[in-house]
Give the backbone structure.
Amino acid sequence: MSTKVEIRAEPAPPAELLARASALAPALRERAAEAEELRRLPDASFDALMATGLYRIAVPVRFGGLDVDYSLALDVAEELARACPATGWCYGLWAAHAWLIGYWPLLAQEEVFIGDPDTLAASSLNTGKSTCVPVDGGYRLSGRWEFSSGCDFSDWVMLGVPGIGERNWALVPKADFQIVDTWFVSGLRGSGSKDIVVDDAFVPSHRVLDVTTAGDGDWTGWDLHEQTRYRAPIPALLGWDLVAPMIGIARGMTDEFIGRLSGTTGAGRTAESEAVPIRLSHPAGGPPNPPVPRLRRGRCRPRPDAPRRPRNPGPRRSRRRILSAGPRQVPPRPGVCHPTVPPVGQPHLRHQRRPRPLRFGRAATLPPGRPRRRPPGHAAHGLRRPGLRTVGFGRIDIDPTSASTTPQPMSNASNPSNSEQWTNVHPPD
C-alpha cells in the first residue's frame, strides 16, 4: 500500500523530534479531509510520518529505537492529532504497541523487529468473539475482533485471547489474519479501525503474553532493554496513548475556532474580545478562568435619563377578560366543604380565582403550644371562613358542628392522654 521510504533514524534531542512533528503538521492538516474520505490514512501522510523517524521513539533501543523517554511519544501524538486527528490517533497506538512488544519473550520481539525496526503492529486487546485451544507448542486461535485502528499499514496484530489466564495477548502475523472493512462511521473515519478475522491460526507459546505479570513479577522487558518504561506494569502506562491524541484533537478545535475569527472586521469583533482567549486557555492547559465579578443586590439602578420600556398590554387584556366572566359556579358535592366563592376579580380576593375544594381527612391531635406555620395560598381561604383554623403547613382544623372561629374540643375516650383532638382537613392532591 505504501512504498518504502528513507527513515531518519539518527539520534536527536527530544526538542528536535517534537519540532519534526510540528513541521509535519501543515501537510497533515491539508490531507485530513482526504483521510476521512478514504477511511484510512493517505499514503502520502503515512510515508511522511514514517520518514521523520518519530515511530522509533517507542521501539526498544536494541532493535534500533531512540534512547528517549516514552512520554515524548505521547507529546508527538498530541501534536500530530492537533493537525490531523486520524494520524495522531494511529501514531499513538502504533507507538504504544512498539513499547508493549518489549514485554514479550525475546524470540517474539526478534520476529517482529529484527528485519525492520519500523514494523508496525495494530491491536484489538479484547477477546472479542474468539476461541483459543491449547495444542502442542502453542494454541489454535480463531475468532473476530473489532476496532483495530491502523491495521491497513500493520504487519502484525496484537489480539486478546481467552481461555489461557486472567488476561493474555497474542501476536499474530499478517499472513494469519484478514481485515474486514466495517469502519463506516461518522467521526475519526481516517483511523481505519476495521475488524480482524483469524481462522484456525497456530500461535506459538512464545507469542503469548501474560499481561497481569508483565512488569510486575515478570521482568523480561527490563532485563532485555533496561529502559525505565519497562519497570512499570503494563496498566500503569496503557491508555495514555489514547488520551494524548484526544488532547491534541481538542487543541486543534481551538486552533480552528480562533483561526476562523482572525481577520473579522467590525466594532467589538469577537477575535479581539478578552473573554475568548481566557475561556479557551483552560481546555488548552492554561490557567483556570478568573472569577467573574458579581453585582450585589440593590446596587444596579437604571439611569434617570434612560427611556422607559413600554409595558406589555397582554396581561391587562387578560385581566379584563377574566373580570368580564362573572362569578364562578362550583357544583356542590356530598362530603366536600365548599367555601363561598365571591365574584372573580375582587382585589382583596384575587387568590380565589381558582378555588379548590377542601376534603375532610382523618383526625389528628394538635399538641398544646405547637408553633403554627402559614399555610399555602389555597389553604388561606379557610382562614377567612367561620370554623376553620390552621394547625400546620397545608393542614386546617374544622369543627363541623360550630360556625364560630374558635375550634371546639372533641372527646377522645380511646386515648385519655390527649385532651384535645381536631378533625384534620387536607387540601386536594
